[in-house]
Write a structure and sequence with these properties.
Blueprint (H helix, E strand, L loop, with lengths): L21 H27 L19 H23 L5 E7 L6 H8 L8 E6 L1 H13 L1 H4 L6 E2 L5 E4 L3 E5 L5 H11 L5 E8 L7 H12 L4 E8 L8 H13 L5 H4 L3 H10 L4 E6 H5 L7 H7 L8 H9 L1 E7 L23 E9 L11 E5 L8 E5 L11 E5 L24 E4 L5 E4 L2 E3 L2 E2 L3 E5 L4 E4 L11 E6 L2 E5 L2 E3 L2 E2 L3 E5 L3 E4 L15 E4 L12 E6 L12 E7 L7 E8 L3 H4 L10 E5 L2 E5 L14 E5 H7 L4 E4 L11 E6 L2 E6 L1 E3 L5 E3 L2 E9 L3 H7 L2 H4 L3 E6 L23 E2 L2 E2 L4 H10 L3 E3 L7 H4 L2 H9 L3 E7 L11 E7 H9 L4 E4 L13 H4 L1 H4 L9 H5 L1 E3 L2 E4 L12 E8 L2 E6 L20 H4 L11 E5 L4 E4 L4 E6 L4 E8 L19 H16 L5 H19 L1
Parallel strand pairs: 1-2, 1-6, 2-5, 6-7, 10-33, 40-50, 41-42
Antiparallel strand pairs: 3-4, 4-5, 7-9, 8-9, 10-38, 11-12, 12-13, 13-39, 14-15, 15-18, 16-17, 18-19, 20-21, 21-24, 22-23, 24-25, 26-27, 27-28, 28-29, 30-31, 31-32, 32-33, 34-35, 35-38, 36-37, 42-51, 43-44, 43-45, 45-47, 46-53, 47-53, 48-51, 48-53, 49-50, 49-52
Family: Belongs to the methyltransferase superfamily. LCMT family.
EC number: 2.1.1.290, 2.3.1.231
Keywords: Methyltransferase, S-adenosyl-L-methionine, Transferase, tRNA processing
Length: 1045
C-alpha cells in the first residue's frame, strides 16, 4: 500500500460503517492508501511494459497517466520487488517455495510472476494477505476476471473464515497482521511450514502498523525454519528536518496514516540494526538511489532504455525520492551479508580545515520569489552604489516564466529596475545558464521548455543599458549544460542535452567577434558527455599569465546511463581567442561519494562558483546518498585543488529554516553568497518551495582577518527580494525619454499592484473606479489543485462543454473566425495542452441561454476549491455570475462589460490590455455592440490609436484583477493554458437593462432607450435636404458631446 497521490482517482472504495472506532478509521485509512498506488502502477504498466500482459487493469477502472517522476519512481519500486522475487524463484531448493505478500492491496504480483517466470513459478505458492474487507473485494475481481482465474487451477471461492480463495498456485488470506498466532495458524492450514522456504514481501505496508507490532511480525517471520524477508519502505536519512522528509511525513499524517517505522528506524544503518536485533543474521539494505546505480541490480542498457519510453529530466527529484526509500533483504539461512552497517559519520573525513558560514534568512512576500532552475545575473541599478542581483526566468509556481526577480540589500532605498528600450527579450525557459562577461554584461545560453524542446537562442544582457540583445544561436540547442567565463568576453560551454535522449558531446566557445567556435582535443583521455556537471575556471593569478589560456576543473554530472559521475578532471585550454582553440583534460581521480559522505565536487545540478578565491559548490545531488546538511555546501581552495586534486571541505553553517538546495540560483557578491529560489516536487507528496533567500557570509577558520572583514556592516546586510520585473511586460519603445516620444509612440501604463486587508479598503477601490491588481488574497486551494488531471477527475472527462474553436490565435467577434463546438471536457483539456486554439467560457449547466453562469451550481465538484476572499465582500453580496474560463493559445477580442468584475487567475498566466471608457471612440465599436474588431496586440502602434491610453496587466496565479465597468479589455495567455474564475457583480444601484442578462454585458437601460430616441430624432429629419439634415444633426451631436463632459 502507499500514500495517495494528489488528484489520484480511487478505483474502488472500501466501505465504511458509521460509528467507527478510532482503530477502525485508521485501518480504513491504511486500506485507502492502496487505491492511489495501483493507479500509479497501472500507469507504469501501460507505458513501460507494453509487451507484457497487463494485470493492474483489472483493479483500476480508469487509468491515469502519471508524471514522468511518479512513473519512474514506481517503476523502480516495482523493479526492486521483482528483482528480489525473481532471485528467490530461481534459487535452487528442494523445499516448497512460498511467496507471501504482506499488506498486498490490489497488487497482482502472483500473476506477474507466473507470466514472466513460468518455469521458475512452477510449484510455487503465492499468498496474498491484507485486511479482510479489502481482500474480499480482490476476491471478487479475481472471480470475475477470466484473464486472472484462468491461470489458476482448482479454484475455490470461500465465503467464511480467513481463507477467502484457494487454488493450486494462489491463495488469499484476510488476516490482521497484528494477530500473529492467528496468522501462523492460518498459514499452517495451507502449507507445511517445516517443509517450506518462505519469501515475505512488504512494500510500503507494515510501516503503517504500530512499530512494535511490525517488529513482532518481522521477528516471528525469522522463527520460521527457512525464511527471507523483503522490505521496501520509507527512510529519513536526514531525519524530519530535511524538506523532502518534512513534506513526505506531513502528507501521510494528513491522510491519517502516519509512518511509524521510519521515525524509530530512520536510516539504512538503523534498519540494518533493527533486523539483526530481531534475529536475522544476514541483512542487505540499500536506499533506492544507491540501488538505481548498482550493477548487480540494473545494467547501463536497462537504465538507458527507460529514456525511450517518455521524456525525463527530474533527476534531482528522482534522487530525493530514492534516498528516502530502502530495499532490505534479510535471510535466516544465507551466510552472506553478515557484517552490520556502520552509521556514516556526518563529519568531514578528509581532515581539512573546515570553513564556517553565517547565514541570514530573508522571507519572500507571499507567492513572490519562488522559482527553480532559473539563473542569476548582476543588474544595473539607477542608484549609485546600490548592487542589484536578478534571478532570471526558470520554472515558477505553475509554469515557466520569463520574468526576473530583483534582489537588493537596500530594500527601502530601492530604485526601481526596468529594462529600458528592449525591443526583444528572452522567452521563458529553464535549465539555462547566464555567465558574467565583465563590464559588457552577461551571456544567456540555451535552456529548455520541456525535456524534448531545447532552445537554441543566446542573448547578451547589457548591464549599463539595461537591454537584452539576441546574439549568435548555438550550433546545437542544449540545456543542463555548464558554462564559464574564460576572460576577455569569451564564454566556454561544455555538455548538456539537445533532447531528452541526446547528450551533446562538444566544447564550444563564444565571443562577440567570433561567435561560436568548437574546441578540438588532442587526446582520447577526456570525461564522457554529461549534463549538469560542476565546471569552474581558476581565476587569473597575475597579468603575466599566458594570454588566451585558461584552466580549471570539471566534475560530476549525469552521463547517458543515468548515473552521477564521481570523476574529477582538470582542463586547460590554450589560444581560446584564436580560430582553433584546443582543450586538454587530465584525470585527477574518482573519490567514492559514499565514503566521503557527499563532501565532493562531483555532483549533479549544483551551483559552482568562485568566491573569494575559493571554489564553492552549493547543493545538487550526489551518487548513492542524500547530501547531509554539513556537506550540502563544500569548498576547496585553488591551491589545494591544484596540489591535491580532490580536496574538498565542508562549510559548516546553521540554516533556519533549512532550505532545499535543488534548483536554486547562487551568486557571489563581495563577502556574500546569495542563494535564491529553489524547489522540488517531493514525489507524490507535494511540492516544497524555499520561502526566502539566504545571505551567506563565508569565513575561514583560523583567519582572523577574514573574520573581521566578514562582520563589517556591508557584508552583514542581508539580501532581500524587492521586486519582480516581467520581461513580457516591458514597453517596446526606443530608449528615449517620455517627453521626447513621438505622438505615435504608445506608453503602456502599468496597472498598480496593492495588498488590502479589509472590505473597507476594497470599497474605496470601488469608489475610485480604476483597475487594480490585488495580490496576496486567499482564493482557495484551486491555485494548487486545478491541474488538468484533477479537473478531468473532478468535473468528469466525459462531460460535454461548449467551447470556442478558433481558426486564428486572434479571435474576432465581428468576423466570427471561430465556431462554437461541443467537446468532451477531458478532450478539450488535452487539446489545449497540445496547443489547440480553444477557449472555454462556461455557461449555465441548467439553462445556458437563460441563466448566468454560476460556478457553484455548474461545477459543484470543484467549486469548494475556489472562494472569494473576505475582503471582497461587496463582490459576493452583489454577484451576478461566476463563469469558469480556460484558455489555450488564443487572444480574446477587445470588448467591454457593463458590470464590474474581478478576474481571479487560478493557473497559468495571462496578459491583458485595458483602455479607459473614454477611449471607446477610437476602436470602431458598432452602435449597440460591446465588441471591437481591432486587434490591439498587433495594431497598438497604429497612428489611429496614438491618442489611446493603454494599461497593461500581467496576472500570475493568485492575482485578482478588479476591472471597473465599461473599461475596454482584451486578454492573451502567456502560458500554455490559463485557468481563471471571473465574478461579475452589480456596482450600480439601478439602471441595468430589464429582463435577462446572461453574460452581464447588456448595455444600460438608459443607453438602449437613448438609441431608440436617436432613431426617432433621425427619422424626423428624413424629409429635409441632405445638407440641411446633416447641419442640424451635427449641431445635436455637438450638444450631446457638451453634456458628456
Amino acid at each position: 500500500m502507499e500514500g495517495q497521490i494528489q488528484n489520484g482517482r480511487r478505483p474502488a472504495k472500501v466501505s465504511k460503517s458509521s460509528g467507527q472506532t478510532k482503530a477502525q478509521k485508521t485501518d480504513d485509512s491504511i486500506m485507502g492508501t492502496n487505491n492511489s498506488s495501483i493507479v500509479s502502477k497501472r500507469s507504469v504498466e501501460r507505458l513501460y511494459f507494453p509487451n507484457e500482459p497487463h494485470f493492474f487493469r483489472y483493479f483500476v477502472k480508469k487509468p491515469l497517466r502519471r508524471s514522468p517522476l511518479i512513473n519512474r519512481g514506481y517503476w523502480l519500486r516495482m523493479k526492486a520487488i521483482d528483482h528480489v522475487v525473481k532471485q528467490f524463484l530461481e534459487q535452487k531448493s528442494e523445499k516448497q517455495k512460498v511467496v507471501i505478500n504482506l499488506g498486498c492491496g490490489y497488487d497482482p504480483l502472483p500473476w506477474q510472476c507466473m507470466s514472466r517466470y513460468p518455469a521458475a513459478s512452477q510449484g510455487v505458492k503465492f499468498i496474498d494477505i491484507d485486511y479482510k474487507d479489502l481482500m474480499t473485494k480482490k476476491q471478487t475481481v479475481v472471480q470475475n476476471a477470466p484473464e486472472l482465474n484462468s491461470m489458476l487451477t482448482n479454484l475455490n471461492i470461500i465465503q467464511n473464515g480467513d481463507i477467502l480463495l484457494s487454488s493450486g498456485q494462489y491463495l488469499q488470506l484476510g488476516c490482521d497482521l497484528r494477530d500473529l498466532k492467528r496468522l501462523e495458524e492460518t498459514i499452517s492450514k495451507v502449507v507445511d511450514i517445516e517443509k517450506c522456504s518462505f519469501l515475505f514481501t512488504a512494500e510500503v505496508s507494515i510501516t503503517y502498523m504500530p512499530t512494535e507490532a511490525a517488529d513482532a511480525l518481522i521477528q516471528w517471520a525469522n522463527k520460521l525454519p527457512d525464511a527471507r524477508f523483503c522490505l521496501l519502505e520509507q527512510l529519513l536519512p536526514e531525519e524530519i528536518s530535511h524538506p523532502f522528509a518534512k513534506t513526505m511525513m506531513a502528507h501521510f499524517d494528513k491522510l491519517g496514516t502516519p509512518l511509524g517505522a521510519c521515525k524509530k528506524y530512520p536510516t539504512v544503518a538503523a534498519q540494518d540494526r533493527r533486523f539483526r536485533s530481531l534475529g536475522w543474521p544476514s541483512v542487505l539494505v540499500r536506499n533506492l538511489w544507491e540501488l538505481w546505480g548498482a550493477e548487480d541490480f540494473l545494467d547501463s542498457s536497462e537504465r538507458i532504455a527507460l529514456d525511450s519510453v517518455e521524456p525525463f529530466d527530474e533527476w534531482e527529484e528522482f534522487a530525493l525520492f530514492g534516498c528516502h526509500y530502502l530495499l532490505l533483504v534479510a535471510d535466516n539461512v544465507s551466510t552472506e551479508n553478515r557484517e552490520a552497517i556502520q552509521e556514516s559519520s556526518k563529519q568531514n573525513l578528509d581532515g581539512l580545515k573546515t570553513n564556517y558560514t553565517e547565514s541570514i534568512y530573508s522571507e519572500y512576500p507571499k507567492a513572490q520569489g519562488q522559482r527553480r532552475f532559473a539563473a542569476p545575473l548582476s543588474l544595473k541599478s539607477e542608484k549609485k552604489g546600490q548592487d542589484l542581483i536578478g534571478n532570471f526566468s526558470g520554472m515558477g509556481l505553475n509554469t515557466r516564466i520569463s520574468s526576473c526577480d530583483v534582489y537588493s540589500t537596500d530594500v527601502h532605498g530601492f530604485s526601481s529596475f526596468d529594462y529600458q528600450g528592449s525591443h526583444s527579450w528572452p522567452s521563458s525557459r529553464m535549465c539555462h545558464t547566464i555567465t558574467e562577461i565583465g563590464d559588457g554584461g552577461s551571456l544567456l545560453v540555451g535552456g529548455r521548455t520541456s525535456p524534448d524542446n531545447s532552445i537554441v537562442d543566446c542573448w547578451v544582457y547589457h548591464k549599463w543599458l539595461n537591454t537584452w540583445e539576441r546574439v549568435d544561436d548555438l550550433p546545437q540547442p542544449r540545456y543542463r549544460h555548464s558554462a564559464v567565463n574564460l576572460g576577455n568576453g569569451y564564454v566556454m560551454v561544455i555538455g548538456g542535452k539537445s533532447t531528452s535522449r541526446t547528450l551533446v558531446d562538444d566544447v564550444i566557445i563564444w565571443s562577440r567577434r567570433g561567435g561560436w567556435v568548437r574546441c578540438s582535443t588532442d587526446s582520447n583521455e577526456r570525461p564522457q558527455p554529461t549534463i549538469g556537471s560542476s565546471l569552474v575556471v581558476y581565476p587569473k593569478v597575475s597579468p603575466s599569465d599566458s594570454p588566451g589560456s585558461s584552466f580549471g576543473v570539471i566534475a560530476g554530472g549525469i552521463a547517458a546511463d543515468g548515473l552521477v559521475q564521481e570523476e574529477v578532471w582538470e582542463w586547460s585550454i590554450s589560444q581560446y581567442t584564436g580560430k582553433q582553440p584546443c582543450i586538454v583534460f587530465k584525470f585527477l581521480g574518482s573519490p567514492s561519494t559514499k565514503a566521503e559522505n557527499g563532501a565532493t565536487l562531483a555532483r549533479f545540478g549544483a551551483q559552482a562558483l568562485i568566491h573569494q578565491g575559493n571554489i564553492m559548490i552549493v547543493g545538487g545531488i550526489v551518487r548513492d546518498v542524500l547530501l547531509p546538511l554539513s556537506h550540502e555546501i563544500c569548498s576547496s581552495s585553488i591551491e589545494d585543488m591544484m596540489r591535491a586534486g580532490l580536496s574538498c571541505s565542508s562549510v559548516s553553517m546553521s540554516f533556519e529554516p533549512r532550505p532545499l538546495l535543488i534548483g536554486t540560483s547562487a551568486i557571489s557578491n563581495g563577502d556574500n553568497i546569495i542563494i535564491m529560489g529553489g524547489s522540488a516536487v517531493c514525489f507524490s507528496f507535494g511540492t516544497f518551495w524555499n520561502k526566502g533567500c539566504y545571505t551567506l557570509t563565508t569565513k575561514h577558520s583560523g583567519d582572523s582577518k577574514s573574520g573581521e572583514n566578514a562582520t563589517n556592516d556591508a557584508s552583514c546586510k542581508p539580501w532581500k527580494f524587492v521586486h519582480t520585473f516581467d520581461a513580457a511586460a516591458a514597453p517596446k519603445s526606443s530608449p528615449t525619454s517620455l517627453s521626447s516620444s513621438s505622438p505615435g509612440t504608445q506608453i503602456l501604463a502599468k496597472v498598480p499592484r496593492v495588498k488590502i486587508n479589509s472590505s473597507v479598503e476594497f470599497d474605496k477601490i470601488l469608489d475610485a473606479s480604476k483597475p487594480i491588481i490585488l495580490e496576496g488574497l486567499d482564493i482557495g486551494v484551486c491555485t494548487q489543485e486545478w491541474t488538468s488531471e484533477y479537473l478531468k477527475d473532478k468535473v468528469g472527462a466525459d462531460r460535454e462543454v461548449v467551447v470556442h474553436e478558433a481558426s486564428s490565435e486572434n479571435m474576432n467577434f465581428s468576423s466570427k473566425n471561430f465556431a462554437y463546438v461541443t467537446k468532451k471536457f477531458g478532450d478539450f483539456l488535452d487539446e489545449v495542452e497540445k496547443g489547440s486554439k480553444l477557449y472555454l467560457r462556461s455557461l449555465s449547466a441548467e439553462k445556458a441561454s437563460e441563466l448566468p453562469a454560476d460556478i457553484v451550481k455548474d461545477y459543484p465538484a470543484i467549486s469548494a476549491d475556489f472562494k472569494l476572499p473576505r475582503e471582497l465582500a461587496s463582490v459576493k453580496d452583489n454577484a451576478h455570475s461566476s463563469p469558469l474560463r480556460i484558455s489555450g493559445p488564443v487572444n480574446m477580442w477587445l470588448h467591454y462589460d457593463v458590470m464590474a468584475n474581478v478576474l481571479c487567475q487560478v493557473r497559468g498566466s495571462k496578459r491583458l490590455l485595458l483602455f479607459p471608457p473614454s477611449d471607446v471612440k477610437y476602436f470602431d465599436f458598432a452602435p449597440g455592440a460591446s465588441s471591437s474588431g481591432i486587434n490591439v496586440f498587433e495594431n497598438l502602434s497604429d497612428p489611429s490609436l496614438s491618442h489611446t491610453h493603454p494599461h497593461e496587466v500581467l496576472l500570475q496565479p493568485g492575482d485578482v484583477l478588479f476591472l471597473p465597468s465599461l473599461w475596454l479589455h482584451t486578454a492573451s495567455p502567456t502560458s500554455s493554458m490559463s485557468v481563471a474564475v471571473n465574478v461579475f457583480f452589480r456596482n450600480l444601484r439601478n439602471g441595468y437593462a430589464a429582463g435577462k442578462d446572461v453574460y452581464g454585458n447588456r448595455d444600460l437601460q438608459a443607453y438602449e432607450k437613448g438609441r431608440q430616441d436617436i432613431a426617432k430624432i433621425a427619422k424626423s429629419f428624413e424629409s429635409l435636404p441632405a445638407d440641411v439634415r446633416g447641419f442640424y444633426l451635427q449641431r445635436l451631436a455637438d450638444e450631446f458631446m457638451q453634456k458628456a463632459t
